[in-house]
Amino acid sequence: MKTSDFPQDIKDHVIPSDQGELVYTCLGCEAEFGISRLLYVCPDCGQVLLLKDNKPERISKITGKLWRKIFDYRKMLTIPALKGIYRYHEFIGPVVPLDSIVYLGEGHTPIVEANAFLQDKAKIRFFYKNDGQNPSASFKDRGMASALSYINFLIQKGYVSDVLAICASTGDTSAAAALYASYLQPHIKSAVILPSKKVTPQQLSQPLGSGAQVFEIPGVFDDCMKVVEELSAKYPVALLNSKNAWRILGQESYSYEIAQDFEYDMQSKVVVVPIGNAGNITAVMSGFMKFFEAGIIDHLPQIIGVQSNHANPVFRYYLEPDKDKRRFVPVNVRPSVAQAAMIGNPVSMPRVINRVEKYNALSNKKNVFVVEVSEQEIMDWELLANRNGHIACTQGGESLAGLAKAVALGIVDKQATAIVDSTAHALKFSGFQDMYFENRFPKEFEITPREDLINHPRLVHPSDLTNVPTPEKPLEGKELSHYVERISHEIAKLLNLEKHHP
């Protein structure tokens, strides 16, 4: 649709300009720093950073009602830079010009309502937001679109050149980083560090296919993260983990999309996300708070963060009801099917603490909760979801298990409507499904397959059928007819089918 056909009151706003004044702000000493250089932690105190707009009047001078209209009309534009997460340009990257934005098809992933059976099982109405339908098949593309658009902007401005982007990963981050970096070659190259033998083959193939330099090291994700932090501190590399504040900005789009898809009505809504490295839950809270403060939404939804009992440092932190007595203690993780969330020392933990406090204050009540689930619950709920029309990954199973647990504990009202995060595509974690069906999980996973969820292919080859087709020698005539009749008869028996009667 052409902007000339848009209503007069939004014509001056529907195509955003690069304005605003973003600065890094430290969560420790509250110092501020310019964005003309890449920063990941405060140069003064070493604490993590968030990005803040020092010109908030750009937002406040437009009413919430008008913002809603602007975003709804932007959906009709064909400008690539505004098709993805930058539909919400003023809230995500107001300093990034449209010609710097990298769009590979990320964002605006479908929200699919669960069928009646699954909602009855979970005892609540809920929807899956399938972020596995992003270009690299995970939600990480949201943050990478933001981080790489910003780096592209720095390159175009001449602030940096010949960038080597690097990240630690359990799989999804490396796939997204390698994909977006490859689009900006030769100006950007990528390297990823993975924990050896702890990434699925599907996830490993992605950065390799995108041309990244891939390094596998002994240990778990937390060890990979320490190596990347060391590299970014001592060498000229661009760190692309969620320690990068631009990643958080891009992931805020998840909240904006949910608000828009529900007509900006967030009353009696619950958003459920796995915690992992804690960047996503930070972004989700930040995004909803920005829309709330701008008057775009009138209510802040309840937020439920979920962790496996094999990697649960955030859950343990919030077990202490008195915030003055809380002390964050990293944990040693145990094997988990929710590999992307198998993190014992999340780098965004200071951000979580900061955002939770502000979110609850704006809500005038406790509105953020963390629940813990078992590995058994994660796999059972994932398989059950996918048997009922979804494409949930193991983290999606973790989210649904967390929703069911929160409902059972009375944390979530059964009359509410939940939006459950499936962070990646089910095919990335199909190996765990195979392990479940074949009952070959190692003991440390603590998973025992349920018979009613196991599924296997069955070979149909009647013992009396001697002639069967091959690629080199297809059957013909009577032999083909006999083959088709015998195979069909055996399948009909297995399916308990009865012949048509005249």
Brief sketch in words of this structure:
With 502 residues, the chain is an alpha/beta fold. The chain is built from 17 helices and 13 strands.
How would you describe this structure to a colleague?
With 502 residues, the chain is α/β, with parallel strands linked by helices. Helix 6 packs parallel to helix 7 (201-209). The protein has three domains: 111-135 and 252-453, 3-Layer(aba) Sandwich (Rossmann fold); 139-246, Rossmann fold; 459-502, no CATH class. It has a six-stranded mixed beta sheet with strand order 4-5-13-10-11-12, with helices on both faces. A four-stranded parallel beta sheet has the order 8-7-6-9. It contains 17 helices and 13 strands. Helix content is 36%, strand content 13%. A hairpin with a 5-residue loop joins strand 1 (22-26) and strand 2.
Number of separate helices: 17
Stretches where pLDDT is under 50 for at least 5 consecutive residues are none
- By CATH reckoning, the class of the largest domain would read Alpha Beta
Estimated structural class: alpha/beta
Range of strand content: 5-15%
Q: How large is the radius of gyration?
A: 25 Å
What count of domains describes the coordinates?
3
The CATH topology annotation of the largest domain reads as: Rossmann fold
**β-strand number:** 13
- Helix content class: 25-40%
Q: On the 0-100 scale, what is the average pLDDT?
A: 94
Q: Characterize the main sheet.
A: 6 strands, mixed
**Which second-level CATH architecture of the largest domain applies?**
3-Layer(aba) Sandwich
Order of helices and strands: EEEHHHEHEHEHEHEHEHHEHEHHEHHEHH
Distance between the amino and carboxyl termini: 57 Å
